[in-house]
Specification:
The chain is an all-alpha fold. The chain folds into 2 domains: about 15-110, no CATH class; about 125-370, MetI-like (MetI-like fold). About 70% of the residues lie in helices and about 0% in strands. It is built from 16 helices and 2 strands. The protein has helices at about 1-25, 30-40, 45-55, 65-70, 120-155, 160-175, 180-190, 195-205, 225-230, 235-265, 265-275, 280-290, 295-315, 320-330, 335-365, 365-370, and strands at about 80, 85-90. Strands 1-2 form a two-stranded antiparallel ribbon.
Length: about 375
């Protein structure tokens, strides 16, 4: 097991280096740097002035050298103004004595730089946004995984039955409906006072000042911004959580159903039935653990897959988490922040895959034997 983990960790580090270099190369193409120079400097800069600005701010030089500086394995750049004699550099903060500045300041040292839009530390921005997204993902998984496993197990217990066909249809429909469709539908039906369920409940007198559902004009709130400021409530956090959970739920349910149906036809299940073991004990004690081996991998893969959903849902519901920050960084050409968001996405994908491989080995001892 130790050699397996070390080998997979080495592959993960090599993959992370390759992916981060690709992202660094794409975000540091000259058109992006030119746009950054004209945004930070003067929109009417000439080509020579753009090149001079980029060189003064550390964006000149070979790409591989700047990647090493950003990674923290190459000493940070320094520049001296020929007119004022002021020394600036990647590792020199505002007001810092250049003699006291560290030589290396990159990803390996925990220094992700500063946002070119807000001038705030990128690590501080990413940390706060990840907390908000972590809360959203926690509640989404808390609803998605148990519900998907329940649907998959119930459908796979009696393959071909009416219950199986109904639950399978629901799983396929949820998987085929992307977040930007289901989110808009939920907002129109449940968070609009002039359409859908909220309108009907208002007519019945269940909403409004005298309604028993509370002093509100919609069943749910179509924006999750208040969840960041005033705290999470059932009213403002239900729709984004359900939107994320519903899309990922179909994959897990379908995989669980297929695995459960295969296990229920196994020889040891038939033997247990011939021995007179109750159907409930067969499912819970014999079939369920083996049926959950394949869905475990799918559950872990939901983390990177749902990053796309987080981007859509957080933008749709005005929730300023990691996905919203990624969209804003790309829109504003905030290179340092965009690089940090990409690093987080790469690490989430690689770490979840590593955990998935380790968990699969632990759940299925036959892999270790082979």
């Amino acid at each position: 097991m130790g050699a397996f983990i070390l080998r997979r960790t080495g592959v993960m580090i090599l993959t992370a280096l390759c992916l981060t270099f690709v992202v660094f190369f794409l975000t540091n193409l000259f058109p992006n740097l030119e746009k950054l120079a004209k945004t930070q400097g003067n929109a009417r800069m000439s080509d020579a002035e753009v090149v001079s600005w980029l060189d003064r701010n550390g964006y000149g030089g070979p790409m591989i050298l700047r990647y090493g500086e950003w990674l923290g394995v190459v000493p940070g750049w320094t520049r001296e103004d020929p007119q004022t004699g002021e020394i600036t550099g990647r590792c020199i903060d505002f007001g810092m004595d250049p003699a006291d500045a560290p030589r290396f300041c990159g990803l390996l040292q925990g220094d992700l730089g500063y946002s070119t839009v807000s001038n705030d530390e990128v690590a501080h921005i990413i940390g706060g946004r990840l907390v908000l997204t972590g809360i959203l993902m926690f509640w989404a998984f808390a609803i998605m995984v148990p519900a998907a496993l329940l649907v998959g197990v119930l459908a796979g217990m009696r393959e071909g039955s009416r219950l199986d066909r109904s639950l399978s249809t629901f799983s396929i429909a949820s998987t085929a409906t992307p977040e930007y469709v289901s989110g808009v539908v939920f907002i129109v039906l449940l968070a609009s006072s002039t359409a859908g369920v909220s309108s009907t409940l208002s007519e019945w007198g269940w909403l409004g000042p005298d309604g028993w559902l509370g002093d509100r004009n919609t069943l749910f709130l179509g924006s999750a911004r208040s969840a960041m400021d005033g705290g999470i409530t059932f009213w403002n956090f239900t729709l984004p959580v359900v939107t994320i959970a519903l899309y990922g739920m179909g994959y897990i349910a379908r995989m669980t159903r297929a695995s459960m149906a295969e296990v229920m036809t196994s020889q040891y299940i038939r033997t247990a039935r011939l021995k007179g073991v109750s159907f409930r004990n067969i499912v819970l004690k014999h079939a369920l653990r083996n049926a959950l081996i394949a869905p475990f991998t799918v559950i872990m893969l939901q983390f990177p897959w749902l990053l796309t959903g987080v981007v859509i849902v957080e933008t749709l519901f005005s929730y300023n988490g990691f996905g919203w920050t990624l969209v804003q960084a790309a829109s504003n050409n905030d290179i340092e922040l965009l690089l940090a968001c990409s690093i987080v996405a790469v690490l989430v994908v690689l770490v979840t895959q590593l955990i998935s491989d380790i968990g699969y080995v632990l759940l299925n001892p036959r892999i270790r034997i082979s």
